[in-house]
């Protein structure tokens, strides 16, 4: 598109932001780099509505990066519980401790030093650099890809090396370097409330007169992607073995989903099984050799969708008889103390509805 079209885009986007944009979020307009960083980490792969209360909870619990750096892993995971994608939480803790130790608790001031932090990519670094310090770095995320692909009619897939370079270069050209924070906020909000993935508000869009996708009827087709994510199904059967109001749990240490979170006795199966099949399985016999119990029933399935996996979990409650055995890798904890441990969302969803009980923040 010609230079005039690019100027029209930037000018009218900024006008829309200053005169029409009413999107409100607690971190909007924030200049504290710690709070900006915290909001961006929480909102990675998370809807604003879901992340909002977590942001407020973290700010209350950890008002500065040093407070976060000094907190224990288990405590922070407990606050994160329910957000999913726990690598974000691990990386956030690592970055906080780097800032506290290597930068004496002062958030880095350059794009390059921000980008070097654990878990911070180009988008997050650009957001922090522009919002906190007014540095001229353009954000490029899913909203930006969509807005630019539609307005400029870009056919290059966003998930290719060529596409990423093309969109990043274009985003930099469009950035108003004197108002980088306002521009970056404008394009992200515009993609969220006007140029939405489904049912975009084209009829009231201030850019529609020069939007190539709108003019050629290709709004629903853009942006393009080449790769199709293959979703793997996994069937988790959790044994909730109870002795005198105590239950067995363990911390997941394998390099798999939910690392460092807690769970009950897990029997993963290659396909769905019945309660009888589960109790007769080789995995059950190996996990609970010679345990005497009363069966209290198998729960309905609980489903959790991850990026590349679908977890389908069911919970079998067993009431143990006699003396509680020692199970390698597991510890017995009082049911009343389950709130003190961080569990994956699949398990917390079950616990909130079960007789075991769980109170989230």
Automatic annotation (TrEMBL):
- What Pfam families does this protein's entry cite? HHH, HhH-GPD, NUDIX_4
Its recorded reaction(s) are: Hydrolyzes free adenine bases from 7,8-dihydro-8-oxoguanine:adenine mismatched double-stranded DNA, leaving an apurinic site
Cofactor detail note: Binds 1 [4Fe-4S] cluster.
Gene3D superfamilies this protein is in?
Helix-hairpin-Helix base-excision DNA repair enzymes (C-terminal) (1.10.1670.10), Hypothetical protein, domain 2 (1.10.340.30), Nucleoside Triphosphate Pyrophosphohydrolase (3.90.79.10)
SUPFAM superfamilies annotated for this entry?
DNA-glycosylase, Nudix
Q: What is an example of a GO molecular function annotated in this UniProt entry?
A: oxidized purine DNA binding
Start and end residues of each HhH-GPD domain:
42-193
Keyword Hydrolase (UniProt)? yes
Q: What is its EC number?
A: 3.2.2.31
EC main group = hydrolase
- What are the BP-aspect GO terms? base-excision repair; mismatch repair
Record keywords, A-Z: 4Fe-4S, DNA damage, DNA repair, Glycosidase, Hydrolase, Iron, Iron-sulfur, Metal-binding
Q: Which cofactor is essential here? A: [4Fe-4S] cluster
Reported function? Adenine glycosylase active on G-A mispairs. MutY also corrects error-prone DNA synthesis past GO lesions which are due to the oxidatively damaged form of guanine: 7,8-dihydro-8-oxoguanine (8-oxo-dGTP).
Q: Which family does it belong to?
A: Belongs to the Nth/MutY family.
For this entry, the protein name equals Adenine DNA glycosylase
Q: Organism source for this protein?
A: Chitinophaga costaii
């Amino acid at each position: 598109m010609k230079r005039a079209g690019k100027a029209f885009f930037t000018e009218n986007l900024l006008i829309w932001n200053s005169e029409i944009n009413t999107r409100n979020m607690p971190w909007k307009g924030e200049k504290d780099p710690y709070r900006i960083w915290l909001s961006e980490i929480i909102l990675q792969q998370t809807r604003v509505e879901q992340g909002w209360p977590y942001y407020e909870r973290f700010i209350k619990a950890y008002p500065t990066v040093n407070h976060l750096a000094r907190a224990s892993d288990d405590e922070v995971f407990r606050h994160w519980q329910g957000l999913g994608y726990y690598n974000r939480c691990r990386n956030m803790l690592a970055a906080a401790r780097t800032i506290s130790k290597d930068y004496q608790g002062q958030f880095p001031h350059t794009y390059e030093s921000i980008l070097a932090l654990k878990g911070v990519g180009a988008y997050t670094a650009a957001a922090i650099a522009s919002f906190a310090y007014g540095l001229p770095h353009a954000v490029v995320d899913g909203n930006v890809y969509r807005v630019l692909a539609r307005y400029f009619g870009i056919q290059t897939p966003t998930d290719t090396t060529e596409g990423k370079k093309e969109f990043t270069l274009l985003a930099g050209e469009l950035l108003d370097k004197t108002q980088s924070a306002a521009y970056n906020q404008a394009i992200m909000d515009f993609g969220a409330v006007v140029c939405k993935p489904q049912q975009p508000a084209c009829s009231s869009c201030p850019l529609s007169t020069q939007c190539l996708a709108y003019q050629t009827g290709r709004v629903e087709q853009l942006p393009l992607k080449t790769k199709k994510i293959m979703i793997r199904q996994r069937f988790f059967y959790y044994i909730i073995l109870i002795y005198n109001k105590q239950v067995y749990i363990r911390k997941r240490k394998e390099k798999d989903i939910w690392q460092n979170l807690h769970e009950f006795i897990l029997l993963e199966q290659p396909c769905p099984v019945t309660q009888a099949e589960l109790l007769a399985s080789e995995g059950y016999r190996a996990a609970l050799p010679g345990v005497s119990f009363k069966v209290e029933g198998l729960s309905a399935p609980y489903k959790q969708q991850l990026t590349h996996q679908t977890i389908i979990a069911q919970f079998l409650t067993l009431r143990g008889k006699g003396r509680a055995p020692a199970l390698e890798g597991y510890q017995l904890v009082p049911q009343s103390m389950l709130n003190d441990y961080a569990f994956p969302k699949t398990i917390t969803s079950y616990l909130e509805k079960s007789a075991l009980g769980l109170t989230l923040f």
